[in-house]
Amino acid sequence: MLRGYLRTARYAQSWKAGGDVTVHELTIDREGREVPASLVLPANARGRVPAWIAIGGVSRMGRFHPQLVRFAEALGASGAAVLVPEIPEWTDLHVSPAVIGPTLRASIDALRERPEVVPDRFGAIGFSFGAPGLAIAASEPEIAEQISGIVLFGGYYCLDRTVRCLLTGRHEWEGVEHSLNPDPYGRWVLASNHLTSVPGCEDAKDVAASLRTLAAAASERRVSAWEPEHDDLIRDLRAGLPSERQELFDCFATPTVSPRPDVDLCSELASRLADACRRIDPLLDLASSLEGVTLPTQVIHGRGDRLVPFTEAYRLMAGFSDGVRRGATVTGLFNHSKEHSPPALMSRLTEQAKLFMALRDMINTV
Known about the structure:
Elements: H1 2-17, E1 21-30, E2 33-42, E3 51-55, H2 66-77, E4 81-85, H3 88-91, H4 100-112, E5 122-127, H5 130-137, H6 141-144, E6 147-153, H7 159-168, E7 170-173, E8 176-179, H8 184-194, H9 205-221, H10 231-239, H11 243-252, H12 263-280, E9 297-302, H13 311-318, E10 325-331, H14 345-363
Parallel strand pairs: 3-4, 3-5, 5-6, 6-9, 9-10
Antiparallel strand pairs: 1-2, 2-4, 7-8
Helix pairs in contact: 1-2, 1-14, 7-12, 8-9
């Protein structure tokens, strides 16, 4: 118990000030394909250390996303090894959850070959789009027997509700309605993959391509998709589209100074897009895929998350069986991949204590 507190304190200190770690770049064999990975190790470890596999989200930055790097190094400084595999499909902005299973198997094989790592069951962490896919992949028996528990940051449960929030900002939990100004990055990525599978949008390849351009620009510039820096590009891409498809483009991308399209129009489009996603790739619909999960599972989510609403954390945890649940923590200290600090001192202290306990539970997984 005390050891868990000490390791968590080292994590917290390293998150703020940087950790004393070493980073090794290597490749792992994913079903015959060599893919890169980063292995973070505590610099002054004595003997073998427990290990984690961390799966990031869909981003051009991949395993070099600043917040993912910072997290892996802080966790490494706590006294653990952290393997962060690249998922090339996701750096190309292709939404493909099926690759998580092979990536996990390759990561497990790679860790078992490392002399620095305890050759025991590993922990697994999924962020953003990587969170729900990790839950599904970890339900495979050959993977589950080698994983001690999973931790899901910023993941969704209900595809329909999440896509609706991406387009309208509306979400709900236990009859209480909430609203937010959604991060457009999620809808840009999702539509760039599956918009042309929506009935009536089959000819909208140019819209899908424009949205992919926007998503790539936001990721490569490392500028949040809701920032006004993207306004000129949005206007230029819209102007290059046929007039009959500009209204469709507007549902996904509008300059920050322009009003959003009619919420009912966006809600109806969200429903059709979610149906198309489910038809093309059933693994995107997590709600029907959790019954096979048997590993202890912890969910951590930012209350101010503008990409996946915090209500999905509660819905996600409720979707697991009683024997699997290890708790859902919704904190005001971060959004999706950005830090946040409540203005009131007591609120900050309360949130810090709550997050510290959640991180302690996470660190004690391995």
